[in-house]
Amino acid sequence: TLLGIMCTDAPVAPEALKSILTYAVDRSFNAISIDGDTSTNDTVALLANGAAAPPTPFKTIKESTPYSEDYLQLRDTVTSFAADLASLVVRDGEGATKFVTIRVTNAASYEDAKKVASSIARSPLVKTALYGKDANWGRILCATGYASECGVDSVVPTETSVSFVPTDGSPELKLLVKGEPEAVDENRAAQILEEEDLEILVRLSEKPGEEAVYYTCDFSHEYVTINGDYRT
Amino acid sequence: LEGQVPHAKAKYVPTSGAYPQGFVVSGTHVGVKASNTRFPDLAIIASEKPCSGAAVFTKNKFQAAPVTVSREVLQKRGGSGIRGVVINSGCANAVTGKQGIEDARSMAAEVDRCFSAQGEPDDGQGSSTIVMSTGVIGQPLPIAKILSKIPTGHANLDSSHDAWYLTARAIMTTDTFPKLMTREFTLPSTPNVTYRLAGLTKGAGMIHPNMA
Predict the structure, then answer these.
(1) Of A53, A48, A9, residue with least CA distance to B189
(2) How far is Cα A146 from Cα A135, in angstroms, rounded to an integer?
(3) For testing the chain B interface, which of A8, A12, A214, A220 should be mutated: the one with the most B CBs within 10 Å?
(4) What DSSP line would sit under A80-96, residue for residue?
(5) A17 in contact with B, Cβ within 8 Å
(6) B63–A227: do the CB atoms touch at under 8 Å?
(7) ipTM value
């Protein structure tokens, strides 16, 4: 189960708080996967008491159209904060040895990008390959492909590219370019997969489009041990 | 609790923080799971004054009792006049029928009663407390034990880093470290005012959230 509570001393009206939380959670807690199971209890709450607001004038942040600068700033601050909190959950995934960012770019829509990222993030075969430090782009591509069953239209095999992006700032390792496999430097791949953090980059097209990010971890023997022992 | 965090995870656990004004928290040992003889497993997070509140909940069709009760609290109040959150770990109070709903309401009511006992007026809009539970599914809450410790948790409410740490510890299940963060920020209209955010979270397994 995922639980989260965020508290701020900024002054925020209830309707603004609700839309800020929804926006933030869609890009953070709703964008993580450890084992693909959705709990009966998942809840994230956001409280705002205005205790730090100057007494006069007391400006409460309200949702409005067009959105105020304060609203947008607070929304983006809460979103980035929630993403950092959600990342901690992934880092503590049962039995996890890796923290994996899945970035899907150039999709026809944000929803398409997120569905593809989610499909990869919950694939047991992708996750066991990551545990085994195997640059198995075939499994990544497979999970990308069956996302179409969830209504994704923007996956075109001949336009899809897959890379590993190291977290040390060095160049990405291209595994597949526009549907064609690259000659992979296995030593370089092994080096990248040795690190705790890794980014998988999936470009659905060469044309600019929407992007979504998902956070996940690998699947290890320890996950089975923990959950084989856990009793209801 | 020293020495409980695995060495590799220690870098993710803060030793201090800039916490938002007007929030007080506590982590209290109840022993929801009989095997837990020492760790806090009851958390209270409260605003010293009524505040705005919002929450998103699982879209799983089998929603636990605290999910149902918390949604009712927020809907009834329109997100205003919220005082805080009470959470137990060790038992999810999920798939526990009508008794589960009653138990979740009792937890919220006991926190409300503690605030009333301080002399705070009842605004007549029902409970102002959000409830959460986490742990095993399908078992009834040991509600008497939990209710008996809520006054202790209320009495221990505090704004210190140690209190926030214990609170984050209290919501853990199979987590290996408490997940707690703070951040300071400003807003364009009041650049000289520093606001704060504090957050705590838990989760290690059964994690693929889809909340609305």
Answers:
(1) A53
(2) 20
(3) A8
(4) HHHHHHHHHHHHT-TT-
(5) yes
(6) no
(7) 0.97
